[in-house]
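QUALITY CONTROL LOG
STEP: pairwise intake check
CHECKER ROLE: data steward
CRITERIA: each record must contain a sequence immediately followed by its structure tokens, with no blank fields

ENTRY 1 OF 2
RESULT FIELD BELOW
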Amino acid sequence: MFITDIGKSGKRIDLGAGLFLEIIEGNRPKAILYRGNTRIKEIDLADKVGKRLFVVEAVDLGAKKSRLADALQMSRQSIHNYLEIRKHFGLEGLIHSYTPRESKSLRKQRDMHSEERIGGNKAKQLTEIRKASKQEEARQLPINFSFGDGAVKVEEGEQPYSGEHGWESSRYAGVFAYLFPLLSQWKWLQLVMSHFGSGYKIFMVFLLMAARNVRSVEQLKNVRSREAGIVLGLGKLPSRPKIWEWFYSVAQRGISSVLLRDYFRHQLRTGLAGLWLWFTDGHLLPYTGKEPVRYGYNTQRRMPVPGQTNMVTCDITGRVVDFEIQEGKGELQSYVLAMGSKWAKETGAPPVMVFDREGHGAPFFSALVNDGIAFVTWEKHVDAAKLAAVEADRFREEFKFNGKRYSVFEEEKDYAHAPEDTPNSPHRFKLRRIYIWNKSSKRRACGLAWDGDKGMSTADCARAILQRWGASENSFKHIQERHPFHYRPGFKLVESEHQEIGNPAIKGKQNLIQRMKTALGKLYKKLAKAREVLNKDGGARSNSVHEQLKSAIAEQEATLERLQEEKRQLPEKIDVSSLQDYRSFKRIDNEGKNLFDFVTCSVWNARKQMVDWLRPYFNQDNEVVDLFYAITSCHGWIKSTEREVLVRLEPLGQDKRRLAQEQLCRKLTSLAVQTPTGKYLTIEVGESPL
């Protein structure tokens, strides 16, 4: 036991890595964790779940397990088990047996939550996992965060922040803050270097672009190369031709899909993304070139335009969980179905999928139910008059969301879908129909839900569909405003695999049919007005106008029927290569776009994490995001020594904002982040050292 100085309890225990633990005795003993003289966290030791989370967080910060075990009077094996449980079962594994303090019946609480708990002995489960780990690793894509064997080598002189220099000013000093969560939690730089070696440099340039909303590589001409280079650990940004050389050297390797899969897998396994609700939406990536490409749909302009669709999935906090760029309009339904199985090993049971009206349809709902994927969505084609006529007293459950009052109730709705291969045995299922009444705006809507066995309440389903649309935060909109989300570095066009188009002959036939129907309509009107003329014997006169119109109508109707039959015989789609006046479709290669969006998503997720860290120090929630961007836009000074890279930010003007800025910098420094060469990253607030 290492005791260094005297605190309130009479002792402060050294845990290593600059961490100290102070135990305060009493009726409810407490533990306070310090980094130097800075208080990081305080925990009530009677709270078992809080104690477990406190232990794993302290180890993440660098505390030695043996000293922590002695200080908290627990076994070293228990700490190891906590870390292994979090690794394999996530934070849910640590808190599954949580019992509220108010409860006096442990057995009753266990019975209530027995279905939610991960059953079985954790130690035995971990033993089985360890035995199967070697076989499992052989089947999975590699995630190599080391810099030895198996990783791409990086020469010592090309390592980030390898040089040493005194204080230098930089107007991009605030960008340095993004490196702390990326390196400590996402292992971002290690991941990039293990795949691309010295090619990590272009990712650092993309980091600057995403953090400072630099909309293209060409706009880097307005960036001070030396000031940006020292913040990024590159010394000095090179000329734009050299930056393009860096870009093409990594893009030509064609492993963006492997990089993305490794990044998102690590994020899910380490609990950096939520597993409860996943929100999916498609976003147009427009194309303005001359080559023929597939058309996407522009929601704002309400018209199809050339481009691609980026299918993006976020968790309930807005962190990006996965994305996929699809050709043309995209297939949201197939993407959502694929997400259920793509991350099955990391998520266990699939999260609840939330999507908009584009996913509406009985065949899609049937596939989700068959695959056991819970979902919530809006109902399409709702009769507004019938919805307005629903009695107000049926909306019995009320809640508030985003400052607005809602009332809800639910019914069941029957569905049936007959697959083409088994038309005589349709799949019959029931969905929950959620009626939502926004009392603030006096509007009503309906949602559909199937939660499997997740036990979602009516209000839970309503909140899920309201979470990312309407007045709620729309992550995609904010990404586009704050970061160059639509930028594509470099275009490469290849022959598209999908060369089918709607048969133009069908359109020609349809035009003839429409003209024939118009002509028939005129004849019908003339026939109605024509007087029937009879002979003396009572028969119709053959040369009368009435009889001539009847003959013309019969002839036109026969022609119309023939045209309709010819239209039915035509194939709906044909290959453009069989036509003379059409050019084949091109497909935009997404390798470079994937690499850039990987950095954009990384910056966005790191921003989400740092805003969460900043929020406790700033009580104006509607301004905390703007405060964060003000901090990361600060000018400052940077110094690199043999053991440390130190950045000092200029203080913000208002006292309240400056104090929050200082607290965030202390939090980032407490993470004890190191570069691949072992230098510690430090960030602080202060006056100019020059």
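ENTRY 2 OF 2
RESULT FIELD BELOW
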Amino acid sequence: MALLPQPAERPVDTSASPIFDPYINRELSSLEFNQRVLDQAADRANPVLERLRFLCISCTNLDEFFEVRVAALKQRLELGAAARGPDRLTPQQLMLEIRLRSLSLVHEQYELLNRDILPDLGREGIRFLQRTDWTRDQRRWLKNYFHDEVVPVLTPITLDPSRPFPRMLNKSLNFIVRLEGKDAFGRLRHRAVVQAPRSLPRIIRLPEELSEAGDENYVFLSSIIHAHVAELFPGLGVEGCYQFRVTRNSNLYVDDEEVDDLIVALQGQLAASRYGAAVRLEVSKECPDDLCRFLLEHFALDTADLYTVEGPVNLNRLATICDMARRPELCYPPFTPGMPAALKTDEDIFSVLRKQNVLLHHPYQSFGPVIDFIAAAAADPRVLAIKQTLYRTGADSPFVEHLVKAAKAGKEVTVVVELMARFDEAANISVATRLQEAGAHVVYGLVGYKTHAKMALVVRREESGLKRYVHLGTGNYHPATARLYTDYGFMSCSRQLGEDVHNVFMQLTSLTASTDLHRILIAPFNLLRDLILRIDREIEHAQNGDGGRIIAKVNALIEPQIIDALYRASSAGVQIDLIVRGICSLRPGVPGLSENIRVRSIIGRFLEHSRVYYFQNNGKEEFFCSSADWMDRNFFRRTETCFPIRQRPLKDRLKADLELFLADNTQAWRMNGDGSYDKLRADNEPPVSAQQTLLADLSAGA
């Protein structure tokens, strides 16, 4: 078997170091992004249930940050790898800064919940009842709920030398209980642990007859267990009961040189990751110091890993209220995604694509045509083969359904499934197994090089011969996230584009070089190189007096080589606008380095996920859409595609969209050179919201 061609290695920079740090640390930039998300929860312009949702998203983001980024940093420290990163911070300095910023973020999360969101929900008749607020009838109902629903699945464990501390699942809800007295065997007991069953909801809605007319009353499972915990230890006194939650390292490690069967290795890693090394301990603020020390010692954590909270330790579970509450007026108004005019016909998708290319902008425009594309291919007797990549596709995916049908119908179906899509590994193993059982050719992403490209290829026999139809996108084949994430999808029957996609699939299955691509740029091979060549071309135009202009919309920007190229372009006079939703290691507006670079972040109703690159090219404008962010992993450790948009109407659409994002003054944040962000405000200018404008222009309305 041919070996996978090696991507270009990053050159070593031997130049003298500047007197300032040219790069912002990615971890600290990530926390800045999470702060912007949390600020959406504080923005009263958003409906109150959506503010609660933003609060929960910020908590989920912080969980993942500790599970992945802090866990990796801790491992570096344990291994003695104290080398500074491009930002020049040592791991020790970085851990201290993470601690300080995370403490501030957590404090703000709970303060916002307790002093703002919960009171606002209460005024709307949605209440979370504390134990001190329960009426007699409510107490009776909750006591019955505890005995009927909770006790049968609880396993309280009293600790002693023969009954060690039980294993705690990652992010599970638990209680440490202080006891006094002797047990049934005459032995003194001091502590016990109660683990909240994963099978039970964390928030319980009280029956309507136990609430005032029009009100919705909810109780936390933790409150129910706390109120009745003494009943779990008859004969013993309960002096205190305190919530805690441990966050564990969730990184998966698979050695590509040692693995014989990736699925078997990954399944083993998934099971182990639930009990990975602890990285953070959260406890309720009432927990006494001695019990905190006891828990820290058990989990081999330091006091710097302890976070005390004023409320439920599993705050992100509040997100279920956004769906449980029957108050649509407290959420964003619903909308119906629009449909491009070209697809509003009785013609089949293949007839449409033979006439013109189609550019879809989700979620403003329907994701349905993408599903229909694969569905039509599965049902069409003229279709001979379907090839598709799957990174995240969701449970009960319609794509998997149609691919299974196609395989069972005898079509050649090839699916590249990325098993190591973080937190979706188990679901993707299930998808791969099902497709294989249906007769599809299933190929896994190569260990060490995740297949992150979003592409589908349909081969159809027509009167003129075989014709290829393609879909390329910036987002996953996931109908649910297509309603929440902004992404572009491009559909075409271009001969050259079809050949390119075919060659990329050949590379993914045969691991041989993909040569002579006509249009597509691909990582980890030529994408970074060709982007830097285009940046250098803008520098030449600027130096020749023709001006230079670059606009890039990405989710993250941290790769040093491309940052350095942008710095060079800025110094040459190229005007650069970067729309970076999340992490950004580039410092904008620094005299002598980046005074011609502006960075903004858009945080709104939808998660900005599309990647678009624009180069002015002295009037011969180039537009690209891509699956790749400007990060090391995307350029060097993933298979990514970057495809041009060449037709003038579609280029005009992309340019108008980019200009709209640059004009946004209601949901945009401007980045400063020190890594902080300022929220833009309309003030005396007309308010502009890119997302609301696109929703009004492209959707089919409410």
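INTAKE CHECK: passed for both entries
DESCRIPTIVE NOTE, ENTRY 2: Residues 1-19, 254-262, 265-270 have pLDDT under 50 and may be disordered.
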